[in-house]
């Protein structure tokens, strides 16, 4: 089982700061999906419009963009649990609708160099996006939001933690984010909720003091 660093999720104010910092960025919708749905980086970069149904409000996670033997390739998600259907809340539907309009304009402006791959989050010329480019984008947004050394993957952990904090049952959270084992879901939560434990124990100490 993977080992997770302690306290790697964002608070609600920090998550809002990310969305505010990303608002005018061409990948704004990607950050909305990362925070709201907990999609992995490869799942976001591998997402196709054919996998998205805005009318029904859902998307299918069926492939991931990964570097294999030095080349970017589309591969099946890493486990059968990673292949999943995820409902889209209104914030995601609205962000994707706006993103689709902007992408159409971008494609029209760059038609001579555009190579259509049907991707939701391609490069500026339609091809699969280099993960390093997303890393650079995240670096700028992270800095604008005042987040220090937060990793892009921590947006996924944030989704898990915030859903559990809202009282969503762990098995539902596991199915949303595509964890293979509910222990992974709860390990992230146990680590991320250290501050909650501190507050609880302070209350107990106050009650006994």
Automatic annotation (TrEMBL):
Q: Give the Gene Ontology MF terms in alphabetical order.
A: DNA binding
InterPro entries recorded for this chain?
DNA_brk_join_enz (IPR011010), Integrase-like_cat_sf (IPR013762), Integrase_catalytic (IPR002104), Tyrosine_recombinase_XerCD (IPR050090)
Source species of the chain: Nonomuraea cavernae
Q: Which residues are in the Tyr recombinase domain?
A: 5-202
| Short name of any one Pfam family annotated for the protein | Phage_integrase
Q: Which CDD domains match?
A: INT_ICEBs1_C_like
Keywords on record: DNA recombination
The protein's name: Tyr recombinase domain-containing protein
Task: Specify the signal sequence span.
Answer: none
Biological-process GO terms, alphabetical: DNA integration; DNA recombination
Q: Which domain of life is it from?
A: Bacteria
